[in-house]
UniProtKB/TrEMBL annotation:
Species this protein is from: Tricholomella constricta
One of the Pfam families matching this protein, by short name: Jacalin
Domain Jacalin-type lectin: 33-112
Protein name in the entry: Jacalin-type lectin domain-containing protein
Annotated InterPro entries: Jacalin-like_lectin_dom (IPR001229), Jacalin-like_lectin_dom_sf (IPR036404)
Length: 182
């Protein structure tokens, strides 16, 4: 039986994207199957004013070889967030332009849940905040075990927008009840 999923609101500017991606379909083989166990690592390449690319490493069910998907261009500084076996990505936060017509992605960071301690920690944002960030507004998305991302790229292959697929039951079977409810 396939787990119940929710798709978050899209973050960023999505009018006439040059290309789209959907890791739940491409990696997880959704809706015919669900082969993703969890995201174990996220790399972000960020310039001074925005994230340019995101690369996700997916651990698969019944397969020891992870699959990696890059979305965007490896331009700028690389930032890596890796989670341990007892940790899960449960949210994404950051900032977009305050321009309502072209809300470009400006920063991205991640919330990580540790199932042993119950702690949720922030990793990021990337790029770091600066004093010149006067025309941005924050966002938070997800807040459930993140299973995969979908989104768009610009014509020059820069990350443009994204949305999150998250589990909508008790999450993953941690062997304890109740399971994470955030």
């Amino acid at each position: 039986m396939l787990p119940p999923l929710a798709l978050s609101q899209s973050i960023g500017y999505i009018s006439e994207p040059a290309s789209t991606f959907d890791d739940l379909k491409d990696v997880g083989l959704w809706p015919a199957d669900q082969t993703i166990k969890k995201i174990s690592k996220i790399n972000v390449w960020a310039g001074e004013t925005r994230p340019n690319a995101i690369e996700l490493t997916y651990q698969l069910i019944n397969d020891d070889d992870p699959q990696t998907r890059l979305h965007g261009q490896r331009q700028g500084d690389q930032h890596t967030v890796t989670v341990a076996d007892n940790e899960y990505f449960v949210g994404i936060f950051g900032a977009i332009d305050s321009d309502n017509l072209l809300p470009s992605l400006r920063r991205i960071g991640f919330l990580v849940y540790n199932k042993n301690t119950g702690n949720v920690t922030e990793r990021g944002p990337f790029p770091d905040t600066t004093e010149s960030d006067k025309h941005v507004k924050g966002f938070a998305s997800g807040l459930g075990v993140i299973l995969a991302l979908t989104g768009t790229l610009t014509a020059n292959k820069i990350l443009n927008s994204f949305a999150i697929y998250s589990l909508q039951s008790d999450g993953l079977d941690f062997g304890i009840k109740p399971v994470m409810k955030i």
